Amino acid sequence: MANALITAVQSMQNDLQYMDIVSQNMVNVATPGYKRAIPTSKPLSRLFDEVMKESEQVANVSQTEKSNALGSVLDLSTGAIKQTGKPWDLAIASDGYFELMTPEGLAYSRAGNFHVDGTGRLVSAQGYAVQGLGGDIQVRGNDVSIDHAGRIMQGETQVAQLKIMQFADAKNVVKTVNGLLQAANADNKAVESKSEIQVGFLESSNVTPMREMVAMMETTRHFESAQKLFQGYDEMLNTAIQKLGEF
Is 176 exposed, middle or buried (0-12, 13-18, 19+ CB in 10 A)? Predict the structure, then answer.
């Protein structure tokens, strides 16, 4: 009976974590370039290894405190490309990422909703400097444009070259705290790409609201079922204790 209670609790914890992942997708349905997370179950062999490792380190850790069976992977498929007509809205036509300089170092994004800040730097919506081949991109004056090759022109003169990067292992990337992407390990280095730039366009989030809503409904029903199982076993346990008290 105790094992059934533990299973029910673990199932509810997984459902809550699943709901957190799906909710985060829904929150970013309108975020340009956002890549949805897909909840996944860990392989049984990996779970077993984690549980064994934890049990060796802390002998009195309960099963409900052990490794969670749920993880997530990124859906790196391209979102819809929509025209905005804004001169600094950029979309990458094929593979690749914009390189940004953050306080934590270089990070990567498909979101091209850029603007020029008060110091003349081309920056992302979060204020991170967009990187060119020579570092931060600085633009001055009104006669500035960008072409499909990523060349930033001041009149007839090229003043910078937009830096588009891609990873050797395209799937081996992780999300940072601020929602940008980085390589999952040091070996998966970003290298320069020659992707075409679409000027006046933005890549939308690849989140499909209907799919996420269905996932929310299914998770809610599953949570309710596990909750009923827990309550049922709890009532059986109380009844058993009361019966024993009568003897």
Answer: middle
